[in-house]
Design brief:
The protein has about 350 residues and is α+β, with helices and mostly antiparallel strands. It has one domain: Orthogonal Bundle (Cytochrome p450). It is built from 15 helices and twelve strands. The strands form five sheets. A three-stranded antiparallel sheet has the order 1-12-8. Strands 7-4-10 form a three-stranded antiparallel sheet. It has a two-stranded antiparallel sheet with strand order 2-3. The longest helix has 18 residues.
């Protein structure tokens, strides 16, 4: 994970320098800005600098827009553009994976998986490898991108929160070397709470589990007893607990301090009795990339808020779920206009 984080941080910093090299104020769509920087940085961290991020990004966005069609097994004629975009992404991956020099510059995550494929002739076909890494690409980009947007948007839109975050960063910033104490920032309870609250509010995950034996369950406020049979499938939609006022008072409100230890029993209720927080899934199938993703979001929030002044010109948009129901972190329904300008060095030292 340390290697991936170093790759991500280096690439993200470079992108900010490339996009905002001077101190002139620029107008941006905050979501597209976060999408571009996070997608490229995540892809380069995982797949290396030779990965065609910019070339693949348009097709990937179109593929992602149609992801529910593929999951539901719709025929190609329903969404020809989406199916073509998926094939284009798949072909980009095949070309990349067929180049030993490009793979050699990828992360250890990719290299180790490629080595393991070589030991399994039955799955070592290029098509199979490209399909597998489409899953890695989806996991490393599709949920982190909208999560990064919501984190920055809420932090800027909620009075006093930007100042609190900057104070945390200031305590872990050395002006002489222009470096951060990342270990302290990753471990900071307030930053972790802020991110966890964002995922609670905007993640829309469906966890599916196969019932291994007949089990009696107590369901609903009337405590109705129901037996689920071995072989049946149970679906848990995260919104059922994440937006439940019996678990999270004022569930529609973004409260960055909600997950601080001292707020247990106040802003989070009944967590000892129920599984009340499931943005990463649960059990043996809990997302294995959750620690990397959390730290990615700390890096992004730190670099954007410390080096730039961002002014929002619109209220935070609502989340788009509909066809993406249960498929991950929700996207915004519209763009969000903002202006961004690089902070003067004197402000960083103050």
């Amino acid at each position: 994970m340390e290697e991936l984080l170093n790759r991500f941080r280096s690439r993200y910093t470079e992108q900010l320098d490339e996009l905002l090299s001077d101190h002139k104020e620029q107008e941006i769509d905050l979501y597209n800005f976060c999408k571009t920087t996070m997608f490229n940085s995540s892809c380069n961290a995982v797949f290396g600098r030779d990965f065609p991020c910019e070339a693949i990004s348009k097709d990937y966005a179109r593929f992602e827009q149609s992801i529910s069609c593929f999951i539901k097994g719709y025929p190609r004629l329903i969404d020809r553009e989406g199916f073509q975009a998926r094939e284009n992404v798949h072909n980009y991956l095949k070309t990349f994976l067929a180049d030993p020099a490009a793979v050699a510059n990828a992360s250890e995550l990719v290299i180790s998986h490629m080595n393991s494929f070589e030991q399994k002739p039955e799955v070592n076909e290029l098509d199979n490898k490209a399909s597998y890494f489409m899953g890695i690409l989806f996991a490393s980009a599709s949920n982190v991108v909208p999560a990064a947007f919501w984190i920055v948007a809420h932090t800027l839109a909620t009075p006093g929160t930007k100042e609190k975050v900057r104070a945390i960063i200031a305590k872990n910033y050395d002006a002489d070397s222009d470096t951060f104490d990342w270990d302290q920032l990753f471990a900071n309870e307030e930053l972790k709470s802020l991110i966890s609250e964002t995922l609670r509010l905007h993640s829309n995950i469906t966890n599916a589990r196969l019932v291994s034996e007949d089990t009696e369950m107590v369901i609903g406020p009337n405590k109705e007893k129901k037996v689920v049979k071995k072989g049946e499938i149970l679906l848990l939609v995260s919104d059922l607990v994440h937006w439940d006022p019996a678990v999270y008072p004022e569930p529609e409100k973004w409260i960055p301090e909600r997950f601080l230890p001292e707020n247990a029993g106040k802003l989070i209720l009944a967590e000892k009795n129920w599984k009340t927080y499931v943005p990463w899934g649960g059990g043996l199938h809990m997302c294995s990339g959750r620690f990397f993703a959390m730290n990615e979001m700390v890096v992004q929030l730190t670099l954007m808020l410390w080096y730039f002044d961002i002014t929002l010109h619109e209220e935070i948009p609502t989340a788009y779920i509909k066809e993406r129901f249960g498929l991950g972190v929700a996207h915004p329904t519209r763009e969000m206009k903002a202006t961004i300008v690089r902070r003067e060095k004197s402000a960083l030292r103050a």
